[in-house]
Amino acid sequence: MALINHIKQEINAKIVYFGPGMAGKETNLQQVFSQLQEKERGKPKLMELHDARMLFFDILSASADSAPSSYSLRYHLYTLLDDGSSTSWRMVLKGVDGIVFVADSDPARMEANSDSIRQLKELLEEVGRSLREIPMVIQLNKRDLPGASPVGDMIGMLNADTFRTVSAVARSGEGVVDTLGTLLKLIQIDLRQQGLNVTDSTGMFEKKISDIFGSGQGPSPAGVPIGAPEEVKTAHLETHGQTVLGHVVELGEPLLENGVVRLPLTVTCGDRYQRFTVTVSVSLDG
């Protein structure tokens, strides 16, 4: 679920790139990063999980409209660089606000696509979510392959007729920005339906997408990494005398209201997580 900082008037939304191994998830993030203006993107980070590596960075859009009460939108993009177990993917999907499902157009990978989207549905159900309630775009990647599966067949196989689909060749950059731009608009609509002040006309939002992506470095050659991602260390927690791999202690933005500081924390350990709020009263008297 989107995290809202009312003090900074900022909404933080989490986007996960999901799909079968070698479908192009990492390539998508490489291309997105390379086409962003430097001032609009965060430093890429890489975290070692127990059986996979998680790549993530954030992008900051302009305020959703010109009204003083509007909120800026910060999107956090995540994926796993390795196949990863259900445990790792479950961690990545917690709190997700939007999904890009990257499907492989190779006819030999149709079963892998089907298995992957079934896994996605099951993982979301395990954390109390439903695929139908989360904005999602299905990217049909590798459309340049000789004998690529017909678009209609892929949509039918993925039962994707109710989702937006974008054809792409991620290694050349084709369709990558369209995929993310489509999802950002769906997330914005979803946030507006939740009562948040991110209302915008389609034309204005398209301009913002163009402003963010329009003056970047251009498509990245296939296989070129996103520089050197910052290594984020995992934490180890002591539980009943045993060391258990605990992946992240995520700190939210502190909120100050009426002399009370509230600091949101999310602690993840294995396939379990818990949210906390640390409350501190502040007095400047005497």
Characterization of this structure:
This protein has helices at residues 25-35, 86-93, 110-126, 151-157, 176-193, 202-213, and strands spanning 3-5, 10-18, 45-48, 53-60, 72-80, 98-104, 136-141, 164-167, 230-232, 235-239, 242-251, 255-257, 260-269, 272-281. The protein has 286 residues and is α/β, with parallel strands linked by helices. It has two domains: 3-228, P-loop containing nucleotide triphosphate hydrolases (Rossmann fold, 3-Layer(aba) Sandwich), CATH 3.40.50; 235-281. Strands 1, 2, 3, 4, 5, 6, 7, 8 and 9 form a nine-stranded mixed beta sheet that branches. It starts with a strand and ends in a 5-residue tail after the last strand. Residues 201-205 and 235-247 have low confidence and may be disordered.
